[in-house]
Amino acid sequence: xxxxxxxxxxxxxxxxxxxxxxxxxxxxxxxxxxxxxxxxxxxxxxxxxxxxxxxxxxxxxxxxxxxxxxxxxxxxxxxxxxxxxxxxxxxxxxxxxxxxxxxxxxxxxxxxxxxxxxxxxxxxxxxxxxxxxxxxxxxxxxxxxxxxxxxxxxxxxxxxxxxxxxxxxxxxxxxxxxxxxxxxxxxxxxxxxxxxxxxxxxxxxxxxxxxxxxxxxxxxxxxxxxxxxxxxxxxxxxxxxxxxxxxxxxxxxxxxxxxxxxxxxxxxxxxxxxxxxxxxxxxxxxxxxxxxxxxxxxxxxxxxxxxxxxxxxxxxxxxxxxxxxxxxxxxxxxxxxxxxxxxxxxxxxxxxxxxxxxxxxxxxxxxxxxxxxxxxxxxxxxxxxxxxxxxxxxxxxxxxxxxx
Length: 404
Fold this sequence. Notes:
The protein is mainly α. The protein contains eleven helices and no strands. It folds into two domains: 1-179, Growth Hormone, Chain: A; 200-404, MFS general substrate transporter like domains (Growth Hormone, Chain: A). α5 (130-178) packs antiparallel against α8, α7 (216-247) packs parallel to α10 (344-373) and α8 crosses α11 (375-397).
């Protein structure tokens, strides 16, 4: 388990870097380059679009490669990209297209890291240790995400864009250093009917989707995950407008409200192993979806920047984030045990690709929809999508043998 502790530390630091990039790069675009709103939208969906286009390809690569080596390459690549951006910003040569390309590449490298980390855990740890180990990953990721969002603005404000990017790059160096001494999980010798590199890439992409199609449990998880991703993306385009502009909460108050989400995520991670043992993975996942839906339903009910309105938003953060974490932990565990070891990354990539396509669709359509019907109704629609995902999962889980 010493290897797992090192991987857990690397995941925590790596996730800190990923979240820091998500706030530092948009700030750089807005404050240093003074981009237009449509350009900011393009920047914000660049990593999702790259993930939707490239995850299936990465699945085959990760299956064939060493998992520790893949994580190290992903960390090194992200560090070099951010150091390059810092150098360009310092010299005054940074252009918008460079930020978009960097966001896309960073998104792909983050997917590669996560696929490799999940596959490493599935092959290096006993199956009965996965629920607890995934809960630990979720708890540490939640803590690092909260820290990144809390510190990101101050790093940019106090140190400037260049130094903030260097600090972000160093977080990936620290992640790579955590992987020293981690035993390698070698790549599998997979067969491909195609000839040539391009043919093999296409074959891997087809196989990733085929694994989802012919594995009943993965079909359920993919369908549920796609609906959840669509709902989350739709909410993401409307939430900040609703709470900051329509209702009128001050940014300081909103920061406190957002911090409550970390508490909910930590609670979900803490409860996940026990609920899995008591109710089984399927029961725990259904409970998580119910809590997610309940939390989402509270947001449109907030009417004014009052104590009551704030309480509803805090409850949404705690209940909704806790439920989502509870679902995600058991979802991740099932993906790690649903197929043969040599196909883990491709199966995971197949599910992720469908979720990312749904996320991209929600991001592109959410702004127009919120403009047409208003942010409050758009948030109510996202809650309805979460409910639909829960009902779909509840209706199908009894026919699928989801192991605890």
